[in-house]
Amino acid sequence: MSPEHDTTATSTTRRTFTTVAGGGAALALAGCLDSSVDDGSNEPMPANNNQTDDEGPGEAKAVDTDRIAADPTDLPDPVDWNEPRHHEVEMTTTEETAEIEPGVTFDYMTFDGRIPGPMVRVRQGDTVKVTLTNEESNSMPHNIDFHAVYGPGGGAEASTVNPGETAEFQFKAMYPGVHVYHCAVPNLDYHISAGMFGAILVEPKEGLPEVDRELYFGQHEIYTNADAGEEGHHSFDFGAMKDEDPTYVCLNGEAYAITGDGYGAVEVDKGERVRIFHANGGPNLISSWHGIGNVWETFYRDGAVASEPDHYVETAPVVPGSVAIAEIDTPVPGPIKLVDHALSRVARKGLLGIINVNGEPEPDIFDPEPA
After folding, report:
1. 335, 355 in Cβ contact below 8 A?
2. 161 phi and psi, to 5 degrees?
3. Between the CA of residue 343 and those of 195, 250, 265, 292, 356, what are the distances in Å?
4. DSSP character for 81?
5. Mean pLDDT value across the chain
6. Predicted pLDDT at 56
């Protein structure tokens, strides 16, 4: 199946919850960036990257989209071919205003208008042609760095485009695994924090074991000039990012998006085996990934599908710039809460997703009211 992405929004339902209120210098990374790009002429930056806006948020802005959070069920089907294929992958970078939570607006950057960006799914040995378009209405240059690429900057140098431009490059998917991709222009930490990351899955030649259902999530931090839950338009805070002190830590770009108070939990049936891809865009924090009420029965650390997986892992680190894979069983009904077990991020900064398991009770396994 082609890894091309359907960017049609799956829902425009507005949310009504409220969070608990709580509390870079331009980089030229060797081998990652084209030093000829004059980032300073295109990308607005404070005079001092440690600067913060002490005035707090201004009035909330009109939004460009009702939803920035990707649907976790929207990912390509498993590989079902046995010979190398050629894939055409087209992505568009966007800069748009949306709500982190109701009443709180923020200027995001994305691949194809969603966070995380679309999953690309190919087979080891396939050839991938990437076409990246930077929308003419954007204000900054963008590019894409695939961690699955042998080549300068993972393709970043070849794909750097100013607003209104399109670039192409091609690569052969040589090694299996699931890998992050992200924008890698100067101030790449800013672009990633604002939403520019996703995952590419290179399945091994023999494929992955069959499961009943797959889900795709992305975690990242947002650094703003106000507290979580403080209504208005939050500006980006470079000083907070340098200090690694985020306002929000989000799953799929928004606070509590994949919950009953957001766009709804993911629904699965009791007995299904579920594979979950968890991309950590960062740019800074390690995720202590945990499923409350479940366990990572099979766990591929760092997405290393060519290695033997671990089993029955309770909580696992997912470092920035990596993707983990967990497979879970669902023997009892009820909610499975996907969290970062650095739990203040859950209670106060927005990091929570829910999988609802539907079915009849199994009191031999779990009985909430024993006689």
Report:
1. yes
2. -135, 140
3. 22, 13, 20, 12, 21
4. -
5. 89
6. 81
Q: Positive or negative CA dihedral for 57, 60, 64, 68?
A: positive
Is 48 buried (19+), middle (13-18) or exposed (0-12) by CB count in 10 A? Answer: exposed
pLDDT at position 54: 56
Angle at 257 between CA 346 and CA 195, to 5 degrees: 90
Contact criterion met (CB below 8 Å) for 183 and 192: yes
Which tens digit of pLDDT belongs to each residue from 118-136?
Answer: 999 999 999 999 999 999 9
d(CA 248, CA 221): 6
Q: Which residues of the chain have pLDDT under 50?
A: 1-53
Look at residue 9 in the predicted model and tell me its pLDDT.
Answer: 32
- The CA–CA distances, whole Å, from 134 to 29, 32, 67, 164 equal 22, 19, 20, 6
Give the model's pLDDT for residue 371: 86
pLDDT in tens, 311-351: 999 999 999 999 999 999 999 999 999 999 999 999 999 99
DSSP string, 283-310: SSPPEEEEEET--EEEEEGGG-TTSPPE
* Token code pair at residue 248: 């929000």
Would the pTM of this model clear 0.90, i.e. be above it? no
- Please give the helix or strand (H or E) that residue 346 lies within, else none: helix 344-349
The answer to whether the beta carbons of residues 346 and 328 sit under 8 Å apart is: no
Integer Cα distance of 3 and 130 in angstroms = 11
The H or E element spanning position 334 is strand 334-340
* CA angle at 54 for the pair 49 and 60, rounded to the nearest 5°: 100
**Tokens read off for 245:** 């002190």
> What phi and psi values does residue 233 have, to the nearest 5 degrees?
-95, 120
Q: The dihedral of CA 115, 118, 124, 129: what is its sign?
A: negative
Rounded to whole angstroms, how far apart are CA atoms 248 and 237? 12
Whether the link from the prior residue into 102 is cis, omega within 30° of 0, is: no
- Residue 92 host element (H or E): strand 86-101
